[in-house]
Design goal:
- Helix 8 runs parallel beside helix 9.
- The protein has a seven-stranded parallel sheet with strand order 1-2-7-6-3-4-5, with helices on both faces.
- The longest helix is centred in the first third of the chain and has 21 residues.
- It is about 35% helix and about 10% strand.
- Helix 6 links the parallel strand 3 and strand 4.
- The chain is an alpha/beta fold.
- The protein is globular and about 55 Å long.
- The chain has a single domain, classed as Histone deacetylase domain (Arginase, Chain A, 3-Layer(aba) Sandwich), CATH 3.40.800.
- Pathway: Ketone degradation; acetoin degradation.
- It comes from Saccharothrix espanaensis (strain ATCC 51144 / DSM 44229 / JCM 9112 / NBRC 15066 / NRRL 15764).
- GO terms for molecular function: histone deacetylase activity.
- Belongs to the histone deacetylase family.
């Protein structure tokens, strides 16, 4: 098996543009790749240029009638149904083509791993985890995460773990594989009582025959790096060791950041970097190093997303960037025009301490209560003791 990491990127990804003042602005992707390039993270890397996914590939997880609606939407106007033409998912020119390319990017990454050409692959333009079988949702037209997982299941793998670190519940992926015991979906997100889409409770465990393969950690608003990492380490490693996935697929949304305008967690760029490094280590331990990393949410477009996803690219490539690294002057000059009223950070760090106390089972805090609820719901279904900190 080859050890080279694959990075999927093409400027055509920027055509996934919901327009106007929509929060999901493709400038975040452009600035992330520019920053990674300026810091030398992508030096010598042959970027993988994706092809758009075919209709048949998209129909792995979406209904044909829904594809027809997406394809017709730009000519049909705004009243097209299927979640299209809403404030979250406005219709835009060549919407199907741009959405199919995002799916194609994640499929290209999956193929690199399945073929053995790479153990790791990353598509920061992917991670559109809210799209459902027959409708768009949460800025997501097609669910590239689910298509890639479905393809992997038909191409040599029968145990896949999906970890979602976005601030919003990974509902579309959970829904796609809720009844499939071959896929473990784990989502750590802000408590659904306080944030859209309102799903992702610990009681959502998987369908008949797949009980325990849907896992949800509902984090209290205000959770910061140490709390997030405490919860992650209390739940995820034990489940991965029990499930023994052959591939780890991760949705690496960065809308958990304390500056993100759409949610209320309080992570930092330093916390994101630590998450990626933890995921890399877990992939080495449990899935033979096979790790497919995807983008996701993140709406502080200039100050946060470019730095966090540069750390993601660097982690996948084993070119970890020192948090103290200063932002290149040329990049700062280019990016400043995108945030004229908000000063840019000076380095690749928010100067945050990410150290955390491991979960011990007895702390009386809202965070620990959330961890206990998830462990008690899921761990027995995997033969683990929910009250034993060693599990």
């Amino acid at each position: 098996m080859g050890d080279r990491a694959a990075v999927v990127w093409d400027e055509s990804f920027l055509a996934y543009d919901l327009g106007g003042d929509h929060p999901l602005n493709p400038v975040r992707l452009d600035l992330a790749v520019r920053l990674a390039t300026a810091l030398g993270v992508l030096d010598g890397v042959d970027l993988v240029k994706p092809d758009p996914a075919t209709d048949a590939e998209i129909e792995r997880v979406h209904e044909p009638a829904y594809l027809s609606a997406v394809q017709a939407a730009p000519m049909a106007g705004w009243d097209v149904g299927h979640g299209l033409g809403t404030a979250d998912n406005p219709v835009f020119a060549r919407m199907h083509e741009a959405s199919a390319l995002a799916v194609g990017g994640s499929l290209a990454a999956a193929r690199k791993i399945a073929s053995g050409e790479a153990r790791r692959a990353v598509n920061i333009a992917g991670g559109l985890h809210h799209a459902m079988r027959d409708h768009a949702a949460g800025f997501c037209v097609y669910n590239d995460c689910s298509v890639a997982i479905s393809w992997l299941l038909d191409n040599g793998f029968d145990r896949i773990a999906y970890i979602d670190s976005d601030v919003h519940h990974g509902d579309g992926v959970q829904d796609a594989f809720y009844d499939d015991p071959r896929v473990l979906t784990v989502s750590l997100h802000q408590n659904p009582l306080s944030l859209w889409p309102g799903t992702g409770r610990p009681s959502e465990l998987g369908g008949r025959g797949a009980e325990g393969t849907a896992v949800n950690v509902a984090l209290p608003p205000g959770t910061s790096d140490p709390g997030w990492l405490r919860a992650f380490h209390a739940v995820v490693p034990s489940l991965l060791r029990s499930f023994r996935p052959q591939v780890l697929v991760t949705q690496c949304g960065v809308d958990t950041h304390r500056e993100d305008p759409l949610a209320d967690l309080a992570l930092t760029v330093d916390g994101h970097r630590e998450i990626y490094r933890t995921l890399r280590s877990l992939a080495e331990e449990v899935s033979g190093g096979r790790w497919l990393a995807l983008g996701g949410g993140g709406y502080e477009l200039v100050r946060v997303v470019p730095r966090s996803w540069t750390h993601l690219l660097a982690t996948v490539l084993d070119r970890d960037v020192d948090p103290a690294t200063r932002l290149p002057a040329d990049w700062v000059a280019h990016a400043a025009g995108r945030a004229p009223d908000w000063p840019l950070p000076a380095t690749m760090s928010d100067d945050a301490d990410v150290a955390f106390e491991p979960w011990g089972g007895d702390a009386q805090t809202p965070l620990d209560a959330a961890v206990r609820e998830t462990r008690r719901a899921v761990f027995p279904l995997h033969g683990l003791d929910p009250d034993d900190p060693r599990d």
